[in-house]
Design brief:
- This protein is an alpha+beta fold.
- Helix content is 26%, strand content 35%.
- It has 2 domains: 3-191, Bira Bifunctional Protein, Domain 2 (BirA Bifunctional Protein, domain 2); 199-243, SH3 type barrels (Roll), CATH 2.30.30.100.
- It has helices at residues 12-22, 71-88, 149-153, 159-178, 182-191; strands at 3-9, 30-36, 55-67, 94-97, 101-104, 107-119, 122-132, 199-204, 210-218, 224-227, 233-236, 241-243.
- It is globular.
């Protein structure tokens, strides 16, 4: 496991992608930054992190024969690796909020951004960006549901140790993926899916209208499956729907 430590960078994902273009990288090469100025989340949302307090890092991995249609299972695997790491640390009430946020109860403690490149209908490589709130105790007022390991568990942590544990767990789950253990990955992900089978308010991102529904699961294509009020099942991509902020 090769770990590159930076004092600051705009984005560890961007840094690692540029590094991969210019030099051969071994699998699980990891770039971690003390400060990230332009960290990105899903749908180009920013990831705000107080310098030196949290873990902001990216992991590179190359695949030999992972089909494009297994991309969602790659996302599932990374989420499960984070979930298992945090379980080992006794973080309570852990769930995966679709598509790639880790929650403790109703508080977001971790965000994941998985970026992939393709060749000949296969996933060539991936850069997995992770932001984990560890020691940050205060958050901007517009982020009402953010928290950290310190706020939840009331203790200090060694950032390097957590980083190593996460990378090791990602190795375990990616190995399951490469061994085609899709049923196991799918089952575990859905066992921990946030708001599954709970009546929930959603926002249609196209119409900006709100509606009620019940999450049934996530399709192999990565779409959220929602049971609507007429009992029909509709599928939505990440750009089409979000959980309403209440």
């Amino acid at each position: 496991m090769k770990i590159i430590k930076l004092d600051a960078t705009d984005s560890t994902n961007t840094f690692l992608k540029e590094l991969a273009q210019n030099s051969p990288l071994e699998n699980y090469t990891t770039v971690v930054a003390r400060e990230q100025n332009l960290g990105r989340g899903q749908m180009n949302n920013s990831w705000l992190s107080e310098p030196s307090k949290n873990l902001t890092f990216s992991i590179f991995n190359r695949f030999k024969r992972l089909p494009i249609e297994h991309q969602s299972y790659l996302n599932f695997s990374v989420s499960l690796a984070l979930l298992n790491t945090l379980k080992e640390m006794s973080v309570p009430n852990l769930k995966v909020k679709w598509p790639n946020d880790i929650m403790s109860g109703n508080q977001k403690i971790c965000g994941i951004l998985v970026e992939t490149t393709f060749k000949n209908l296969k996933i060539k490589n991936t850069v997995i960006g992770i932001g984990l709130n560890v020691h940050q105790e205060e958050f901007p007022s517009h982020i009402s549901n953010a928290s950290s390991l310190k706020n939840i568990l009331h203790q200090e942590f060694d950032l390097d140790s957590i980083l190593v544990k996460i990378v090791e767990n990602i190795k375990v789950w990616i190995e399951k993926l490469e061994n085609n253990q899709l049923e196991t990955i799918d089952y575990e992900y859905h066992q921990h899916l946030y708001k599954k089978n709970v009546p929930t308010a959603f926002k249609n991102e196209k119409t900006e209208l709100y509606f009620m529904g019940i999450i049934q699961g996530v399709s192999p294509q990565g779409n959220l499956r929602i049971q609507l009020e007429d009992d029909s099942i509709a599928e939505y991509s990440i750009k089409e729907v979000s959980l309403a902020k209440v």
